[in-house]
């Protein structure tokens, strides 16, 4: 009876801890939403409030002043994220599968090479010369996709999962007459679905949140992704705020969002990912916990 009460108490404590932890994760996001619907004058007077003193959509109206550009930015980001995730997932899984094969003699050497590139990259200049001078893919979607096709951390993460696949399973498939491609697509990939879903989410985050490649390689306004477009808008707001403070320009500060625009940008940028994540949650959790229990 005493042990049962202790178990119940421990369960209640664990639940209470996770409830508190969840609140610490949710409340900052609620603050972001609240601030994005507040006015600059209220922020200056009352500070950050969980419930807006004066509800307004001015920051969003300012951000979507050019709806065509915003929609185009969403389309470019979605296209790059989908195509980049599929391509990166295919290449990463194939490379990780080769590295995970215990009967591959060059596995250790190749794994060290991948790990070394994670610690020491070639840098910006070689990438810039490669894309601009040799591949000539600047000012195209390929310039936004190619640099992130193979990321060492993702390769090693996938390799760690595939290393748990028994070699006997592969050998038995070979005895039945299956080739390497058939083994990979018919046996390995179905087993690795949780890891693939987890890795796909990580890769999608990288492509969706990137704005730096667009800054380097994109001049065509029709190919500007969402993150880079929002980045430029925020820079323009900061420039106007600085010029206003130094007296270089004279405008009504109440008609120019600053902090509220930052939060509106965060909501606009994170919104699609928040909508997609619930569909990956089941596989994502399973992918993180797979291999933790072996029997």
TrEMBL record:
Any one GO CC term of the record: plasma membrane
Cell compartment(s), UniProt: Cell membrane
InterPro entries found in the cross-reference section: MetI-like, MetI-like_sf
Chief place where the protein resides: membrane
PROSITE patterns in alphabetical order: ABC_TM1
Sorted UniProt keywords: Cell membrane, Membrane, Transmembrane, Transmembrane helix, Transport
Regions crossing the membrane: 12-33, 74-98, 110-129, 141-162, 183-208, 261-280
All copies of domain ABC transmembrane type-1, residue ranges: 74-280
Membrane topology value: Multi-pass membrane protein
GO biological process: transmembrane transport
Xref: Pfam families: BPD_transp_1
Family to which the UniProt record says this protein belongs: Belongs to the binding-protein-dependent transport system permease family.
Protein's UniProt name: ABC transporter permease
Source organism: Paenibacillus radicis (ex Gao et al. 2016)
């Amino acid at each position: 009876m005493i042990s049962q009460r202790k178990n119940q108490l421990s369960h209640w404590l664990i639940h209470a801890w996770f409830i508190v932890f969840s609140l610490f994760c949710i409340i900052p996001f609620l603050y972001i939403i609240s601030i994005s619907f507040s006015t600059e004058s209220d922020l200056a007077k009352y500070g950050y409030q969980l419930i807006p003193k004066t509800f307004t959509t001015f920051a969003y109206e300012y951000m979507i002043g050019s709806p065509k550009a915003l929609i185009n930015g969403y389309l470019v980001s979605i296209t790059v994220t989908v195509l980049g995730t599929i391509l990166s997932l295919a290449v990463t899984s194939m490379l990780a599968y080769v590295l995970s094969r215990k009967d591959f003699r060059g596995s250790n050497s190749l794994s060290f090479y991948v790990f070394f590139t994670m610690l020491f990259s070639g840098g910006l200049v070689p990438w810039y010369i490669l894309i601009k001078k040799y591949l000539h893919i600047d000012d195209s979607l390929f310039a936004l996709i190619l640099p992130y096709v193979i990321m060492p951390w993702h390769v090693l993460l996938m390799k760690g999962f595939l290393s748990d696949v028994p070699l006997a399973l592969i050998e038995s498939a070979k005895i039945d007459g299956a080739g390497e491609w058939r083994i990979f697509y018919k046996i390995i990939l179905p087993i690795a679905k949780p890891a693939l879903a987890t890795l796909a989410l990580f890769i999608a985050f990288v492509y969706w949140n990137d704005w730096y490649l667009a800054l380097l390689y994109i001049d065509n306004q029709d190919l500007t992704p969402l993150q880079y477009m929002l980045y430029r808008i925020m820079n323009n707001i900061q420039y106007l705020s600085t010029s206003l403070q130094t007296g270089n320009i004279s405008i009504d500060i109440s008609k120019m969002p600053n902090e509220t625009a930052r939060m509106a940008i965060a909501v606009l940028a994170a919104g699609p990912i928040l909508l997609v994540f619930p569909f990956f949650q089941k596989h994502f959790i399973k992918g993180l916990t797979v291999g933790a229990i072996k029997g």
